[in-house]
């Protein structure tokens, strides 16, 4: 039930005009209060809650058969992406992440470093997926580009210049952001750090 509520917060505005479960001034103020209360819990905010972009991806793939996603739904999804008032990832401070990581020795000290660690742990599967989907131009070293993405997420100034100069790093960061499904692959704060990096490299 709680999983459905999280999903609906991002999906319902794409399906129906004027239906935004997170709107405190809307018809469901208690539901908005529930979201706000849950996001004060480090475990929920850092690992359980998904993000709007991922829930919209799920919506675009589900239930419409061969006809594809209806044009009105696509329009609302574009509008929702521009606003993206889902909360969660944008509201997680370093203190909230530190509280989350304090009792979890396996968690990195920052959300950005945890995103890098998650990429490294899943390196083999990511490389297979990126190669199969031709994420980079022929001849580009996908493994090197992936290492560069992880390096930039760790914010290590010593290697930053070399990471930025690695061929394919921007394309692979964008590919990872597009393929990411949150919270399945990583928590919302980590996903937000990857999305931020992909946008920065694109510019």
Largest sheet: none
Number of strands: 0
Roughly what is the average pLDDT, rounded to an integer? 84
Please give the alpha-carbon distance between the first and last residues.
40 Å
Question: Which secondary structure elements does this structure contain, and how are they paired or packed?
Answer:
Blueprint: H1 2-15, H2 29-38, H3 42-48, H4 52-61, H5 71-83, H6 94-102, H7 111-121, H8 123-132, H9 142-153, H10 157-164, H11 169-179, H12 188-202
Helix pairs in contact: 1-4, 1-5, 3-6, 7-9, 7-12, 9-10, 9-11, 11-12
What labels describe this entry?
64% helix, 2 domains, mainly alpha, 203 residues, single chain
Explain what you see.
This protein is 64% helix and 0% strand. With 203 residues, the chain is mainly α. The chain folds into 2 domains: 2-94, no CATH class; 108-202, no CATH class. The longest helix is centred in the C-terminal third of the chain and has 15 residues, at 188-202. The N and C termini lie far apart (40 Å). The model is unreliable at 84-90 (pLDDT under 50).
């Amino acid at each position: 039930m709680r999983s459905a509520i999280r999903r609906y917060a991002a999906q319902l505005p794409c399906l129906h005009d004027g239906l935004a479960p997170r709107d405190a001034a809307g018809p469901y103020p208690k539901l908005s209060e529930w979201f706000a209360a849950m996001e004060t819990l480090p475990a929920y905010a850092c690992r359980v809650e998904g993000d709007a972009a991922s829930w919209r991806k799920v919506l675009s793939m589900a239930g419409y058969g061969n006809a594809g996603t209806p044009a009105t739904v696509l329009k609302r999804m574009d509008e929702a992406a521009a606003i993206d008032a889902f909360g969660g990832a944008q509201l997680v401070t370093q203190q909230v992440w530190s509280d989350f990581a304090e009792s979890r020795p396996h968690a990195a000290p920052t959300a950005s470093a945890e995103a890098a660690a998650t990429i490294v742990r899943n390196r083999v599967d990511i490389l297979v997926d990126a190669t199969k989907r031709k994420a980079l131009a022929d001849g580009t070293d996908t493994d090197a580009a992936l290492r560069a993405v992880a390096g930039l997420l760790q914010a290590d100034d010593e290697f930053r210049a070399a990471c930025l100069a690695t061929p394919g790093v921007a394309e692979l960061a964008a590919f990872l952001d597009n393929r990411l499904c949150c919270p399945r692959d990583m928590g919302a704060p980590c996903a937000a750090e990857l999305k931020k990096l992909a946008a920065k490299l694109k510019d």
